[in-house]
Fold this sequence. Notes:
The protein has one domain (3-78): Orthogonal Bundle (Arc Repressor Mutant, subunit A). α2 (14-26) crosses α4. Helix content is 59%, strand content 13%. By secondary structure, it is an alpha+beta fold. The longest helix has 13 residues, at 14-26. The protein contains six helices and three strands. The protein has helices at 3-10, 14-26, 31-38, 42-54, 76-79, 82-88; strands at residues 29-30, 58-62, 70-74. A hairpin with a 7-residue loop joins β2 (58-62) and β3 (70-74). It starts with a helix and ends with a helix. This is ArsR family transcriptional regulator. InterPro entries: WH-like_DNA-bd_sf, WH_DNA-bd_sf.
Amino acid sequence: MSDSSAEGLSDLPPSAKLVYKVLQYNGPLTQKGIVEESMLSARTVRYALERLEGIEAVDEDVYFADARQNLYEITPAAAEPADAKAVGDD
């Protein structure tokens, strides 16, 4: 995750941070799965996902089990801890 994305994550509303944590702990989920795990309303989850996509913290992909739904997961760059880049620079 770029420095601007890291700053963007801290500026997000609590609901978006919760959705990010749910995806971090559970891995890729559909919107329905996020609603069930987070206990947020579907509308709140949609808004949170829009905000997370805006800072490129999550990716949206087709859910092949049901093509009417999308699968959301944390972007690989967003999943890297900030310290991992510093370790590789030595």
